[in-house]
């Protein structure tokens, strides 16, 4: 069976104020063409279909168009909700839409109920694990402490239990939206950490033939059977080096996996340039970036006058301007920035406590701070569901 694995469409999202709807529509057209021309048997979409819980009307219309075009091809599609989606909204009408071959899996309680498809070699069970916000699903999975690893492990227990009831030789595919250990994050993913832990081990998914992951925006291989497709478009300059693509997966009769990357159309290349303003305007080596979307970091010791306008004369698609004047290591601004680099919200809060009190928080106080941050995340998740 030939699968096309994609995720993280983020329909409705802009790129530094640039409307991406046209590029997203071009991607949908490319997806449909790939399905038809490469004789794909099933499409899997591993979450973050939309960029937010209540998407703009134009994004909903594009999603509707995508569903109609896929249904017209007669190729089944299995789709889960991600942490940016409203599971309830995305899942509206799932029963009716399923009759057209578009299978929406947005309910955590249905993790162990697969979509059954078949080819000449027998059945393939597709298990959809939507994004599992631990605070919201811990009761469903009867876990003592809410955490990503605990709820995903419980969901996978249901998958294995169902798979054990199937005919021997039934192959299996799991769709999941999660941060798996070994994956490389970018700036455009929303933080999903709970208890200070964001990632889960890949071993959670042992026992299935292929795991189609969503959430991280870079296409990457965790193991030969566990992969991220990545987002089809770049949504931050941290993705400048990404090759945007989908995975074409051939699932053999024995459950073996062969994969091929299918590149996605690029609306405009990205480039990060750095240096003093006059050097950036004069450097002939930068001519290759003149048609790219640009993030420019200026290192001038004094802020130049009207830098965006001057940069835009040479680089008309400059979208982001960062000031990082080169200073001595003793400069207090430099040391402060270094202290913050790579630190999460809880660590910054702990640093603040140490700065004010003269000593950092003890273990009990660290737990209180972590619980507070987790509670804020849980409240945000509940509000997203209620919207």
From TrEMBL:
SUPFAM superfamilies cross-referenced by the UniProt entry: Metallo-dependent phosphatases
Lineage of the species this protein comes from: Bacteria, Bacillati, Actinomycetota, Actinomycetes, Kitasatosporales
Keywords linked to the UniProt accession: DNA recombination, DNA replication, Endonuclease, Exonuclease, Hydrolase, Nuclease
The encoding gene: sbcD
One BP annotation, GO: DNA replication
Residue ranges occupied by any Nuclease SbcCD subunit D C-terminal domain in the UniProt entry: 267-355
Molecular function terms, GO-annotated: 3'-5' exonuclease activity; endonuclease activity
Origin species: Streptomyces spongiae
Family matches, as InterPro entries: Calcineurin-like_PHP (IPR004843), DNA_Repair-Maintenance_Comp (IPR050535), Metallo-depent_PP-like (IPR029052), Mre11_N (IPR041796), SbcD (IPR004593), SbcD_C (IPR026843)
UniProt subunit comment: Heterodimer of SbcC and SbcD.
Protein's name according to its UniProt entry: Nuclease SbcCD subunit D
Lineage top rank: taxon: Bacteria
Matches recorded under Gene3D superfamilies: 3.60.21.10
Family: Belongs to the SbcD family.
Residues of the Calcineurin-like phosphoesterase domain: 1-217
Biological role: SbcCD cleaves DNA hairpin structures. These structures can inhibit DNA replication and are intermediates in certain DNA recombination reactions. The complex acts as a 3'->5' double strand exonuclease that can open hairpins. It also has a 5' single-strand endonuclease activity.
Tagged with keyword Nuclease: yes
